[in-house]
């Protein structure tokens, strides 16, 4: 990946973050913190990693993506819009009555969403089913899923991990958005997870720890995942909750609260500044 | 009269699944360490590459089935009714029912006829739980032939289905030469205009014997077999209510949330008549031989006949 490509990804991620702010602001609800932390990962997946075509969203050979931490969907929706699945303006209708963009991903109503999700722990299992189906059909698509670190407190995540490893789902890549915060506080204070990388390794995964905001690091992880044969792969992506908006960064309070008028203006101004700096770089 | 086959409906389920999977390559099966009991072991033996034992992890099994369905497979996810619909209720709701995915959930060892294992394993709430889910189809076959047809219908239907299987071997009463299964359509097994008995599942045969005995006593009871509890056949219920004026429902399930309540919902809206519900009277079961338990909970031809006869004689 050359520096031009990296700058392009940075711009797209910045726009995805803006989409998350626009969406949650207009909805007067939603989850900005975890949307901002995962925005770089979504951007890399859809613009660099995955075989995903907005013009052919049901292609059976496409790579699949499941947002197991479904509440992080505002920036995923923005990423899908940037990719061309639907107009970016849809973000303004997020969570409104009759809107295409639901509070949590709805595969029936939103082009590009491969699996409905939102109840924590279930998306990673569904991703296992998709990976298993790919193996059965002899298709070489890959399946990606993003989990929250708080989500890893759900027992089902580890049920799925056992399944993925038992059935040698090396076409599955699990990415943990490891921002360290959950609704009630720091993950380590609520119900500590100890070492997530070691946990996944103990469950039979290949695993790597990266900076989830560094595109070269993400690329390194995705390549390692592809090279990992005979077992699934886990990427523990260290991230900053609220990344990109100064007053939201590392703040537990921004898990599930929308910005007010003033906060919206400031957040957008900061992101526009970042976009400008990237464009000028 | 057709030959009587004494077989548990879970056994028939396993047979049907294997038969259908020979020609339909999309059928896959999942189990949660109960494949010998749910009879998906038969499928595993025939199609090992299409079978996924998920271990004792029902929640993951259901959501994994959803992922398989999202990629075009027709997954049958089997466990005991208690764990499939109880433990994994929320996975069924959010991973399967909400996106209306083509997952078939097979809940075996349903009702109190599990027997000796006792209350923890005797699921009398599965139908109630599944009924609350929008778009869920619920099938509760009564004998071998009905189960064979039901599994086929479940495969042909595109959408989530809950299929209820029994542990106890039961005699067949349907004649395969004259039997036809239509999803959502009740079957009148016995004509009569004094009263209507509406039954579901493995207890239908006892109800059939009961109405035959009542006929000998001069009571002409209509008997309807409701194999599809949702969507329920409203027409056959309304017609029975209009023509016979009173209904007795029979089910091996809690009378709260089961067939009886579905019948009452129809009659209350379309033709109010008195409905008496025979079933588990909002209580837990206990250990004992299945047949004894069924009798103790009033699920016997003798009790069905007595309840019906008392209603007819006292009104």
Characterization of the model:
The complex is a heterodimer of chains A (281) and B (315). Chain A is α/β, with parallel strands linked by helices. Chain A has a single domain (3-280), classed as Thiamin diphosphate (ThDP)-binding fold, Pyr/PP domains (Rossmann fold). Chain A contains nine helices and seven strands. Chain A has helices spanning 3-27, 32-49, 73-83, 122-137, 155-166, 187-191, 196-202, 215-227, 261-280, and strands at 64-67, 143-148, 172-178, 181-182, 185-186, 206-211, 233-238. Chain B folds into two domains: 6-171, Rossmann fold (3-Layer(aba) Sandwich), CATH 3.40.50.970; 187-308, Rossmann fold, CATH 3.40.50. In chain B, the strands form three sheets. A seven-stranded mixed β-sheet of chain B has the order 3-2-4-5-7-6-12, sandwiched between helices. A five-stranded mixed β-sheet of chain B has the order 9-11-10-13-14, sandwiched between helices. Chain B has a two-stranded antiparallel sheet with strand order 1-8. The mean pLDDT of chain B is 97. Chain B is an alpha/beta fold. The relative contact order of chain B is 0.13. Chain B has helices at 9-23, 35-38, 40-46, 58-70, 81-87, 89-97, 126-131, 144-156, 204-216, 234-244, 259-270, 290-296, 301-314, and strands at 6-8, 27-31, 51-53, 74-80, 104-108, 137-139, 161-164, 169-171, 187-190, 195-199, 221-225, 228-230, 247-254, 275-280. The radius of gyration of chain B is 19 Å and the shape is globular. Classes of the chains: A alpha/beta (281), B alpha/beta (315). Chain A binds chain B through residues 60, 64, 66, 106-108, 114-119, 121-123, 125-134, 136-137, 155-156, 159-160, 162-163, 166-167, and chain B through 28, 49-50, 52, 54-55, 57, 59-60, 62-73, 75, 90-91, 94-95, 98-100.
Architecture blueprint of SSEs:
The complex is a heterodimer of chains A (281) and B (315).
Chain A: H1 3-27, H2 32-49, E1 64-67, H3 73-83, H4 122-137, E2 143-148, H5 155-166, E3 172-178, E4 181-182, E5 185-186, H6 187-191, H7 196-202, E6 206-211, H8 215-227, E7 233-238, H9 261-280
Parallel strand pairs in A: 1-2, 2-3, 3-7, 6-7
Antiparallel strand pairs in A: 4-5
Helix pairs in contact in A: 1-2, 1-3, 1-9, 2-3, 2-8, 4-5
Chain B: E1 6-8, H1 9-23, E2 27-31, H2 35-38, H3 40-46, E3 51-53, H4 58-70, E4 74-80, H5 81-87, H6 89-97, E5 104-108, H7 126-131, E6 137-139, H8 144-156, E7 161-164, E8 169-171, E9 187-190, E10 195-199, H9 204-216, E11 221-225, E12 228-230, H10 234-244, E13 247-254, H11 259-270, E14 275-280, H12 290-296, H13 301-314
Parallel strand pairs in B: 2-3, 2-4, 4-5, 5-7, 6-7, 10-11, 10-13, 13-14
Antiparallel strand pairs in B: 1-8, 6-12, 9-11
Helix pairs in contact in B: 1-3, 1-8, 4-6, 9-13, 10-11
